[in-house]
Amino acid sequence: MPTCQLCGQNSDELKKTNVEGAVLKVCNDCTDMGKVIEKSKVKKKKKRRRTRTRRKDQVLASNYGEKVKSARESRKLSISELADKLNEKNSLIKKVERGELKPDKTLASKLSNALEITLYVNPEVSDYDTPSKGDTRKATLGDVAELKD
Ligand SMILES: [Zn+2]
Predict the structure, then answer these.
(1) pTM for this entry
(2) What's the rounded mean pLDDT across residues 87-95?
(3) Separation of 42 CA from ligand 1 center, angstroms?
(4) Cα–Cα distance measured from residue 120 to residue 99, given in angstroms and rounded to the nearest whole number
(5) Domain ranges of the chain
(6) What are the tens digits of pLDDT across the range 21-43?
(7) How many angstroms separate the alpha carbon of residue 1 from the centre of ligand 1?
(8) Which fold has domain 59-121?
(9) What 3 state SS string does 54-96 have?
(10) Which residues contact 64 (CB under 8 A, 6 or more apart)?
């Protein structure tokens, strides 16, 4: 018969209990003295959140309209030609180019393939995509000013 490590009483049901930092096998009467340790195998929680950082949560480039328009123009395609090519409506392409409509991933990938541009970008990558580390602050301010123009 196992005995409780706290009170010495014989008991069939001893529970692993953390009593002031020491793990003891105690009877039911003594579990109140500490914190019962549950069997950990089942309850083990995965605390790692690696998936979150690894997953590529790509976001639509903020200047997607501009990108589409300039890529289309550099290919000397009219809006209707591009629309035909993608099997989409002219009005849809126009809206995208004006930044009035955010293309979903399907449309974005069609546009990307047709124009060889990237519309969905990885935010982490673009943040670190600054070529020179020396004077980044000035460069960033300049870029922002240009975009606002
Ligand atoms: Zn006891």
Answers:
(1) 0.47
(2) 97
(3) 26
(4) 14
(5) 1-37, 59-121
(6) 999 999 999 999 999 987 655 54
(7) 13
(8) 434 Repressor (Amino-terminal Domain) (1.10.260)
(9) HCCCCEECCCHHHHHHHHHHHCCCCHHHHHHHHCCCHHHHHHH
(10) 96, 99, 102, 103, 108, 119
- Name the pLDDT band for 126 (thresholds 50, 70, 90): very low
137 C-alpha to ligand 1 centroid (Å):
67
Residues with CB under 5 A from ligand 1 (ion): 4, 6-7, 9, 26-27, 29-30
- Residue ranges of alpha helices (H) inside the chain are 40-43, 50-54, 64-74, 79-86, 90-97, 105-115, 123-127, 136-148
Cα(37) to ligand 1 centroid in Å equals 15
